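Justification of resources, computational component.

The compute hours requested in this renewal are based largely on the per-chain cost of generating structure records like the one below. Each record pairs the submitted sequence with a full structure-token output. That output is archived, and it is also reused by downstream analysis tasks.
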Amino acid sequence: QVQLVESGGGSVQAGGSLRLSCAASGRTFSDYAMGWFRQAPGKEREFVAAITWSGVDTGYADSVKGRFTISRDNAKNTLSLQMNSLKPDDTGVYHCAARSGPSSALSRRPFQYDYWGQGTQVTVSS
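The structure output for this chain reads:
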């Protein structure tokens, strides 16, 4: 089992930047592919970005491609999401998630992730 704790959320104006972090503890962090998801009020949880265990392969939702960057540091058991050029539509609770399936494969599907953090709020004002 792995425990995940997000941090770095906050309130910013459109065009601003935030960097989210996810600290992992428990089992070996590099055993897991990781992902970021977000959920806005009244909406379903949606995929944002994913990364394989090595960090070599990444994937992004079309809505964030070119603005967000996912990365990981296996030595520090940390997952990050650099968010630039933020838009009001980026507002939501951001969750990191760990997938105990093939760690060399990316997934955009929430049900394929086994462990979730509690989330951190991101609010972007226009």
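The radius of gyration is 13 Å. The chain has a mean pLDDT of 96.
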